[in-house]
Specification:
The chain is an alpha/beta fold. The protein has a single domain, classed as Flavin prenyltransferase-like (Rossmann fold). 26% of the residues lie in helices and 19% in strands. The chain is built from 3 helices and 3 strands; from the N terminus they run E-H-E-H-H-E.
């Protein structure tokens, strides 16, 4: 029996152009195994290291790779339990 310590939690994983991006799929699987719901946001640089389809497959959620120009951070507020940047 594994512990689902993140059951019901929503986590946004922000992926940048760091080499750590290659470990993102493993991180997502571990967080999901613990019960979390994961959403991913990727920069253009990250998309050159890890394809968004890999993270969409891992999360079973659409991956955000671009925000409309009309949005800015003051209009894009979401309540989340954790934010992780890779």
């Amino acid at each position: 029996m594994h512990m689902r310590s993140l059951e019901g939690k929503i986590i946004i994983v922000g992926v940048t152009g760091s080499i750590a991006a290659v470990e993102t799929v493993k991180l997502i699987h571990e967080l999901k195994r613990k019960g979390a719901t994961i959403h991913c946001v990727m920069t253009d640089a990250a998309c050159k290291i890890v394809h968004p389809d890999a993270l969409e497959y891992a999360t079973q959620k659409p991956v955000i790779t671009q925000l409309p120009e009309m949005w800015n951070t003051s209009h894009f507020l979401v309540k989340v339990d954790r934010q992780i940047c890779c």
